[in-house]
């Protein structure tokens, strides 16, 4: 049974009617969301039983999956969410172990250890459900996906504008690491916002790991304060966001082989090297890592709007490669 | 004398009546052009050697050579290390093969070049990006044919038990079908292609004479066939068997047998014959695990970045004077320990 053709049948039926549908209870009041239910891969679960007997109105909704409705489910799952969110953070902040990811030279790209599984775990990459105005069931061409990528990592730089004695800093700071033979910078960490800084003797500093621009700025200021307290005349000049990484889940598997064929000029898909497809979007200039599981990583942004824009551009393309097994 | 052979330039006006040389271009005096042409010559030679070893059609050589020329003239490849330049020829052959759907794997070309896959990958990706080359995906169907060529089970030999020898065409045909099945059931996307072919070849071979071959493991099969057993092949095999079992559950006359991962092999022929129907009924969307959408962990979006930072918070990260003393002592001891000559 092909999910999309059933949906098309439903839509055709609705277009030809004055009333909205043969199963009004299901469609109109319960779903102020986009017809495609992008968060739901099993749209047939919703429509399937109805379509087998299109004339009959289901009186029993016990078989219908209503988990997309926020009010009902989220309170119950609040406890699990808390735990899952933390696990996700740990997963993402840790260094990648996938050897294939070494081909990606951008240090802020995160490779998911389980990205290749077709059944994604709830990884916290799911977006908040933003209610959209109720709409008639027309095939959405220009509507937004309803999915908002979550920011996972921000890389920023700042100039402390003074020469630093790294050995001295490593001696007198508890949260500092310094192995000059391995790397010519002090690695410093703070707990809140949970971040890492690379502090160079020139006074330049890189701050990584924050989940928002504001958090990155706050963290950078805290590192600068630590350096000040250690006796250096540190300033806080030219703070700049250098890179932003976001991720989300389109919630359906993607035929990467097909995507690389139709979007050759932007795509690189080499399963011998890396399980994901590397999509280099031109406008905005963002690199997307697209995995068969439907998970998408977006990187290269200087502003968060670029991440959102890039995802909205890729979403309709990905939908074209969505297939029921 | 030199004066006769070298044309005089402006030097004559500066220092008249003295023999001198005319201006020489930087690229000439440092041999930059010669270097480039030497790289190019090496690259071309590498391409020619590879094409010979791989027995590629002549048109491939022409294409690959043109890529090498374009690459070496591209500014981003000028300053690339010699080690990387050495791989350019191989990369260009690889790209050419892929563009002609000639199933050459990266593993094969790396072993021919004695190159680390990481390094090859970086050169390949740069080449693809800088020259804006479109490289189609590796065709699994073609890979099956070439990969099975290296399997040593199609002719009788002293170390191969007679019932293990199999007709090559049969194995190829069945392996293709199993690989196609794998592709349709999402086992291929994002995965390394060779282990899938290995697992499929094993199942195909086993299923052609299950009575005598069911006891043979994947590892032994690869050893007999004198092929490498790539680690993911075990996982691919497991996944394929799961798919086959799900399909078998849709065939009425097989349901009674209560098949398991071993016994389902006996029925692979049947399953492949009816695969189109079985895939539809075994994998309807209702069976897929429901994705439960969860709201992301609420981030503290209230952060402005300009919050005041308390002294106390910063001081927790600083060592006290005693701590510093203790740390210094420990450091000194460690250094002294490593410098002192050992008594033994």
Automatic annotation (TrEMBL), chain B:
Belongs to the TFIIB family. This is BRF2 RNA polymerase III transcription initiation factor subunit. One of its GO terms (cellular component) is nucleus. Keywords: Metal-binding, Repeat, Transcription, Transcription regulation, Zinc, Zinc-finger. It comes from the Eukaryota. GO terms for molecular function: TBP-class protein binding; zinc ion binding. GO terms for biological process: transcription preinitiation complex assembly. Residues 139-276 form the BRF2-like C-terminal domain.
């Amino acid at each position: 049974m092909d999910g999309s053709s059933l949906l098309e049948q439903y839509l055709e039926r609705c277009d030809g009617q004055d009333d909205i549908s043969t199963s009004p209870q299901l469609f109109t009041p319960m779903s102020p969301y986009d017809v495609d239910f992008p968060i739901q891969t099993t749209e047939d679960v919703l429509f399937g039983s109805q379509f087998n007997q299109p004339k009959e109105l289901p009186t029993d909704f016990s078989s219908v999956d209503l988990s997309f409705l926020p009010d009902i489910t989220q309170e119950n799952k609040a406890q699990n969410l808390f735990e899952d969110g933390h696990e996700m953070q740990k997963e993402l902040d840790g260094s990648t172990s996938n050897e294939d990811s070494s081909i990606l030279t951008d240090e802020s790209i995160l490779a998911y250890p389980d990205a290749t599984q077709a059944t994604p775990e709830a990884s916290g990459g799911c977006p908040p459900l933003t209610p959209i105005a109720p709409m008639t069931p027309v095939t959405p061409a220009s509507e937004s996906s309803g999915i908002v990528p979550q920011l996972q990592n921000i890389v920023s730089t700042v100039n402390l504008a003074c020469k630093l004695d790294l050995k001295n800093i490593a001696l007198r700071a508890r949260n500092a690491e310094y192995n000059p033979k391995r790397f010519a910078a002090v690695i410093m960490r703070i707990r809140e916002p949970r971040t890492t800084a690379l502090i160079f003797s020139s006074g330049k500093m890189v701050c990584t790991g924050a989940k928002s621009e504001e958090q990155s700025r706050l963290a950078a200021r805290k590192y600068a304060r630590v350096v000040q307290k250690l006796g250096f005349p540190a300033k806080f000049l030219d703070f700049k966001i250098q890179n932003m990484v976001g991720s989300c889940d389109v919630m359906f598997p993607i035929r990467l082989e097909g995507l690389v064929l139709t979007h050759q000029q932007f795509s690189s898909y080499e399963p011998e090297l890396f399980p994901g497809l590397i999509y280099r979007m031109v406008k905005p200039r963002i690199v997307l890592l697209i995995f068969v599981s439907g998970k998408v990583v977006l990187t290269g942004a200087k502003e968060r709007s670029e991440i959102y824009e890039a995802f909205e551009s890729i979403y309709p393309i990905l939908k074209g490669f969505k297939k029921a097994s | 004398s030199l004066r006769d052979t070298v044309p005089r330039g402006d030097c004559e006006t500066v220092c008249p009546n003295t023999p001198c040389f005319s201006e020489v271009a930087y690229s000439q005096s440092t041999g930059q052009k010669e270097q480039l042409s030497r790289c190019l010559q090496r690259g071309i030679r590498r391409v020619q050697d590879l094409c010979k070893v791989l027995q590629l059609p002549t048109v491939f050589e022409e294409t690959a050579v043109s890529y090498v020329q374009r690459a070496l003239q591209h500014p981003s490849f000028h300053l690339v290390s010699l080690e990387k330049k050495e791989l350019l020829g191989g990369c260009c052959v690889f790209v050419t093969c892929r563009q002609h759907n000639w199933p050459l794997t990266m593993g094969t070309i790396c072993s021919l070049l004695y190159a680390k896959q990481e390094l090859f990958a970086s050169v390949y990706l740069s080449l693809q990006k800088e020259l804006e080359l479109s490289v189609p995906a590796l065709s699994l169907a073609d890979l099956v044919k070439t990969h099975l060529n290296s399997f040593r089970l199609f002719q009788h030999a002293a170390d191969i038990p007679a019932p293990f020898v199999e007709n090559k065409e049969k194995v190829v045909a069945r392996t293709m079908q199993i690989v196609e099945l794998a592709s349709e059931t999402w086992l291929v996307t994002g995965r390394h292609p060779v282990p899938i072919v290995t697992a499929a070849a094993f199942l195909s071979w086993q299923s052609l004479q299950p009575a005598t071959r069911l006891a043979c493991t994947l590892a032994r099969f690869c050893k007999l066939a004198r092929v490498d057993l790539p680690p993911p092949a075990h996982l691919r095999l497991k996944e394929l068997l799961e798919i086959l079992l799900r399909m078998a559950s849709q065939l009425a006359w097989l349901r009674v047998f209560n098949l398991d991962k071993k016994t389902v092999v006996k029925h692979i022929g049947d399953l492949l014959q009816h695969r189109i129907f079985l895939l539809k009924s075994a994998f309807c969307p209702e069976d897929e695990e429901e994705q439960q959408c969860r709201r992301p962990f609420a981030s503290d979006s209230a952060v402005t970045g300009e919050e005041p930072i308390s002294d106390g918070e910063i001081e927790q990260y600083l060592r006290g004077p005693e701590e510093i003393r203790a740390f210094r002592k420990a450091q000194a001891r460690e250094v002294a320990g490593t410098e002192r000559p050992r008594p033994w």
